[in-house]
Write a structure and sequence with these properties.
The protein is mostly helical. A 3-stranded antiparallel beta sheet has the order 1-2-3. The chain has 2 domains: about 100 residues, Ybab, Chain: A, CATH 3.30.1310; about 160 residues, no CATH class. The radius of gyration is 21 Å and the shape is flat. The chain contains 9 helices and 3 strands.
């Protein structure tokens, strides 16, 4: 009972933190589709895992001929390692995290010998850190649902399982879906939206008035007016929406207090 109460208060605290910290990202994508993101946490996780695996393979191919001889054992599978889980379960994200961590260390140890622009290498290393960090966050989320335990009738670490899941309908599909709360869904959606794309501008605003804006080094040296203006408009729109949301929640809270007093 005490554990459940603590969990509820942790969720309330997390929700309050989210409401008092606004984050606006401007992302440059290689390409875009008009398809709407799935509402299924399971499918979103699978798409994230595929993006991360593809990026690791892509970076491995990029650096295979730039690393000093002897710094890596298997040139064709650089950054791939031995892939045992190709799905999107707990083990899959643990494996992605490990691959990204090893790849980051390999680039760090051989950075001085790589015949590429230092800024480009730094950007790729940051991407590897992002994959490692978010993969850890997602596997911890899955662990909270007991996904790390053996004996599941649907093994989402198997790449074919998601196809079976997509074919399920109604209560059968709900049985294997993740019953995430709002904050957990936001974590998954953000990871999916950002993916492996390049974030050029990020603004974080706290209710205490602190404003932090991060700019990628390459964009700072070659800014694009249109993107700057678009980011500024996004910040303004987000602040207005944020104010309205906080006001609604505040009024709702006051209404609950009045009802309680009666």
């Amino acid at each position: 009972m005490l554990k459940n109460k603590r969990k509820i208060w942790d969720q309330v605290g997390s929700a309050l933190y989210d409401l008092t910290h606004l984050e606006i990202n401007t992302i440059i994508k290689e390409d875009m589709t008009t398809s709407k993101a799935s509402n299924s946490p399971r499918i979103l996780l699978h798409e994230i895992a595929k993006k991360y695996s593809f990026k690791l393979t892509e970076l491995g191919e990029k650096y295979a001929n730039h690393l000093a001889e002897g710094s890596h054992k298997n040139k064709p599978n650089l950054f791939r390692g031995r892939i045992e889980n190709e799905g999107s379960g707990y083990k899959s994200f643990r494996e992605l995290s490990s691959r990204a961590k090893d790849a980051y260390q390999l680039l760090k140890d051989n950075k001085s010998t790589i015949s590429l622009n230092e800024e480009e290498i730094d950007s790729d290393m940051m991407m590897l850190q992002r994959i490692e960090m978010i993969s850890d966050d997602l596997r911890n989320l899955l662990k909270s649902f007991g996904e790390h335990k053996p004996g599941k009738d649907f093994d989402f670490d198997n790449k074919d399982t998601i196809s079976k899941f997509r074919a399920e309908k109604g209560s059968s599909a709900e049985k294997h879906e993740l019953d995430v709360d709002l904050r957990q869904l936001m974590v998954i959606r953000k990871a999916h939206d950002v993916g492996t794309e390049r974030v050029v501008l990020q603004t974080i605003i706290g209710m205490d008035g602190d404003v932090t804006t991060r700019v990628s080094k390459s964009f700072a040296y070659n800014p694009v007016t249109f993107i700057n203006e678009m980011h500024e408009r996004s910040v303004t729109i987000s602040i207005n929406y944020w104010k309205a949301l906080v006001k609604i929640i505040s009024e709702f809270g006051q209404s609950l207090l009045k009802i309680k007093k009666k």
